[in-house]
């Protein structure tokens, strides 16, 4: 089981049935996140290749990144489908509401996580995520992630198809666009992971912030 990208790392007060439900949903997310981060590694190495003027290797990196994102989407969609079929989202949303004392502690969790350097989000981004949870819960939040990654996959596949023939101007533009697109989706997914892990245990947020303050000498 993933240590960083699951819905809940431990549910000591949950039933065996709930534990099993979380495992069914978390398993594909862990695998999908492994593929997704591999895609990011390939895109960063693509930049290294371009700095050394190795366009052939850079084109191969793009194709590898596209394949990794495709594999990630298979897993993320599987998790989303299982969560919908087994009624996971209402269960998870209720646990978040209980942890937040009546409402999912999205703003509080992300604000504290931002202060502790766990996520890079401005106030507008935090508010957008909070509103998405308020309107549709974790299902809407994760569904948005899958939708954004699907669009990025299409963009990546489109360039990968002719990367070997791309000119210098294309590489200068697309190379940065691909990294920016990847980072935007990664940061959003990172925010969801933080909500699901720290939001379930509000005390963990306080511990995280206190640790950051000690490191900063506050």
Describe what you observe in this structure.
The chain has one domain. Helix content is 79%, strand content 0%. It has helices at residues 16-51, 55-85, 88-99, 106-115, 123-160, 168-198, 202-215. Helix 1 packs antiparallel against helix 6 (168-198) and helix 2 (55-85) packs across helix 5 (123-160).
SSE topology sketch:
Layout: H1 16-51, H2 55-85, H3 88-99, H4 106-115, H5 123-160, H6 168-198, H7 202-215
Helix pairs in contact: 1-2, 1-6, 2-5, 4-5, 4-6, 4-7, 5-6
Question: Which labels suit this protein?
Answer:
218 residues; 0% strand; disordered C terminus; elongated; mainly alpha
Percent helix, as a range, is over 70%
Order of helices and strands: HHHHHHH
Total strands: the figure is 0
Number of domains: 1
Instruction: Give the biggest sheet.
Output: none
- Count of alpha/pi helices: 7
Distance between the termini: 35 Å
Multimeric organization: single chain
- What radius of gyration results from the CA coordinates? 19 Å
> What percentage of the residues does DSSP assign to strands (E)?
under 5%
Shape: elongated
Structural class: mainly alpha
What is the averaged pLDDT score?
A: 88
Low-pLDDT regions: 209-216
């Amino acid at each position: 089981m993933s240590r960083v990208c699951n819905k809940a790392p431990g549910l000591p007060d949950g039933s065996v049935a709930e534990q099993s439900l979380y495992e069914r949903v978390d398993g594909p997310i862990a695998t999908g996140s492994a593929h997704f981060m591999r895609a990011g590694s390939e895109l960063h190495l693509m930049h290294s290749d371009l700095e050394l003027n190795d366009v052939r290797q850079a084109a191969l990196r793009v194709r590898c990144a596209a394949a990794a994102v495709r594999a990630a989407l298979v897993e993320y969609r599987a998790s989303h489908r299982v969560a919908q079929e087994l009624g996971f989202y209402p269960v998870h949303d209720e646990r978040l509401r209980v942890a937040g004392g009546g409402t999912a502690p999205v703003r509080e969790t992300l604000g504290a996580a931002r202060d502790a350097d766990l996520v890079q989000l401005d106030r507008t981004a935090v508010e957008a995520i909070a509103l998405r949870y308020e309107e549709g819960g974790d299902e809407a939040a994760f569904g948005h992630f899958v939708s954004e990654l699907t669009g990025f996959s299409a963009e990546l596949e489109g360039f990968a198809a002719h990367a070997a023939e791309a000119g210098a101007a294309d590489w200068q533009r697309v190379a940065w666009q691909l990294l920016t697109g990847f980072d935007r989706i990664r940061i959003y997914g990172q925010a969801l992971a933080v909500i699901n892990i720290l939001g379930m245990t509000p005390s963990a947020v306080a511990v995280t912030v206190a640790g950051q303050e000690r490191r900063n000498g506050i």
